[in-house]
Amino acid sequence: MALNFPIKGALFDMDGLLLDSERLFMETLVQSTEPIGISKEDTEAFFVTLVGTSNKETSKHLSSFLPNHVEVTIFEAEWRNLYRARVEEGVPVKPHVRPLLIGLQGAGIPMCVVTSTVSRVAQKKLSKAGLDEFFRGVVAGDEVIANKPDPEPYLRGAAVLGLEASECAAFEDSDVGTTAARRAGCLTYQVPDLRPAGVALPNLDQYVVKDLREAGCHLGVLSKALT
């Protein structure tokens, strides 16, 4: 299959890009904050500021968002336990993911996941979604020194494939992740998912697409007639 761009590898964010897990994470946060008097609207507006951040950054933001009488460590542990229980039930795969992965696989393009999620959880999510078979490896948030928006995760992902980042296409949903991919030198597609209201997309010479189908068609691994 002839590609529109001479890429040799593909690097994928996971939450909010391959899996609809960000929405699930937001729903469980709403469940956790409603009993302490925080509205659904305020919680959802807060959550979108967390998209793409590491666990450490999430904890920092939580401490400034929650009321003073709430013990942040206990709250976060209970929230994450609730989320993990939902993950055990399965996480929905985002639209057009499988056709794109199959198309890249058919074109002989090796793939790696680059995520801020810790390794154990990332592996479990991918396995439950039936996507793990497509990827040569996973670069997780607990395996790097500097998380996104630092380029390290994407540089590491390219190295897993035996490639330079400039030889890879990256697929992201968040501004933080898109920044990391572009800093690494990847050809980058951004598929915006959950976003803060009124916040413009960064201008990083990325391709902004409505979904992964559009990205696949633009890259040349999906046919508009078949997707």
UniProtKB/TrEMBL annotation:
CDD domains: HAD_BPGM-like. Keywords: Hydrolase. One of its GO terms (molecular function) is sugar-phosphatase activity. Gene3D superfamilies: HAD superfamily/HAD-like, Putative phosphatase, domain 2. Signal peptide: none annotated. Pfam families: HAD_2. The keyword Lipid metabolism does not apply. It comes from the Bacteria. PANTHER family: FRUCTOSE-1-PHOSPHATE PHOSPHATASE (PTHR43481), GLYCEROL-1-PHOSPHATE PHOSPHOHYDROLASE 1-RELATED (PTHR43481:SF4). This is HAD superfamily hydrolase (TIGR01509 family). It comes from Shimia isoporae.
